[in-house]
Amino acid sequence: MTCGVAPGMDFNQQIIDTFRANGGEVNDPAPFGKGLVLVHVPRKDGSIRIAPLAAIQDDGAWHVVGSAGGSPRNPAWVYGLRRTEQVDIEVPGDPVETVQAKVEELTGTERDEMWERFKQLSSGFVEYEKTAEGRVFPIFRLSA
Length: 144
What we know:
Structural class: alpha+beta
């Protein structure tokens, strides 16, 4: 299923373009609403990858989870966030705003409580637990 992605267009790029064109609201190719941020993740080679990520805003920060669609392996961007203390994120607004955010990986009870919130946000996260072969999904707080 392509979720309405135009032929030849990268799914993530379509989400990024829609996010930027609509004040951070994305309802096509998938119904994310304003629950995404664009994270500018540094790669080992010094380049930047923009990752559109489901996010929960709480207490002045955005929280993102490395679910990788329930894969037993972390998405590559997790390692980029672990290597840095600060990233740029694009957040919903009119217009979309780019802010610098401190990166902090959650652990213990704090991580577990935020994971429960992600599962409440979407039943897809509950399903991911079934295919992740026991992998604990990393969660990051991105605070401006």
